[in-house]
Amino acid sequence: MDRGKKGSKLHVSPEAQGIPPAVAASGANLRDSQVLTPLILAIPAIRSRRGRSRR
């Protein structure tokens, strides 16, 4: 493990088509688990269609 490593990391959570709905940058010495929760919360909610559903 490289402790105190300089630089930055880019955290990306891609969807099925490969388009990233959320991207975050952090320091290289920060644990990935500390960035995971804010990254997941940054993903926008899936919007449903308006009106009644058709059968």
Please provide a written account of the structure.
The chain is 18% helix and 22% strand. The chain contains one helix and two strands, in the order E-E-H. It has one helix at residues 32-41, and strands at 8-13, 22-27. A two-stranded antiparallel sheet has the order 1-2. Strand 1 (8-13) and strand 2 (22-27) form a beta hairpin. The model has no long low-confidence stretch (mean pLDDT 82).
Structural class, from secondary structure content? Answer: alpha+beta
Radius of gyration, CA atoms, in whole angstroms: 17 Å
Distance between the termini: 56 Å
Number of helices: 1
Stretches with pLDDT under 50, minimum 5 residues: none
Shape: elongated
User: What would the average pLDDT be, to the nearest integer?
Assistant: 82
Describe the strand arrangement of the main beta sheet, using strand numbers. 1-2
Order of helices and strands: EEH
The amount of helix comes to 10-25%
How large is the share of residues in beta strands?
Answer: 15-25%
Find the count of extended strands (DSSP E, 2+ residues): 2
**Which sheet architecture does the biggest sheet show?**
2 strands, antiparallel
